[in-house]
Amino acid sequence: MKIGCLPIRPVIYALASAGILRSGAQFYYGPHGIFLSLIPIAYLFFNGFLIFAVAKRDVKHLKWAQRLTMTATILSVIPFLLFPVVSASFFASGEIEAIEKNGTHFRPEHYGNMTSPDFRFVFGVVAGFCVEIGAAFFIAVELFKYILVSRIWLSEVNWTLMHTGGFQAP
């Protein structure tokens, strides 16, 4: 089964593997609080279950994968609503200048007059748009996973009906 010229199952395996790598990176590099660590772990288990369900090709597992994918799609709207505003206000307020990483300071004198309110506003708007584009991309990936899993589930339902006693030939 294909969508366009791409076979569906390898595309789902690739997207879920990328999701596993992303959740591993979020867990390793992200904040290390108990609640904030649960989100990458849940996303890791979700993508692992997605790979398992597609490999097993069982109707029940695929239906649960379809439900979980829709839930992940709906939950990925929350960062789309929050992160652009937070990042834009973070950059526009000048808080980026106070960040210190690995003993090095951000030096605004190398980049011109970064302390002017006009520059901070433009910098904040650009940062907000960049984060918004990234969040929209992740929503699109989750929605694409949902469409692919739905197609595999429908194919398996039809195959099961045809090869069991539930199919009546005309």
Order of helices and strands: EEHHHHEEH
Helix proportion range:
over 70%
Strands of the widest sheet, in order across it, are 1-2
Number of domains: 1
InterPro entries: Glam1 (IPR024483)
Pfam families: Glam1 (PF10912)
Keywords: Membrane, Transmembrane, Transmembrane helix
Transmembrane segments: 35-55, 67-92, 121-144
Task: Report what the structure shows.
There is one protein chain. This protein has one domain. Helices cover 74% and strands 5% of the residues. It is built from five helices and four strands, in the order ββααααββα. The strands form two sheets. A two-stranded antiparallel ribbon has the order 1-2. Strands 3-4 form a two-stranded antiparallel ribbon. The mean pLDDT is 82.
List its salient traits.
mainly alpha, two-stranded antiparallel sheet, 170 residues
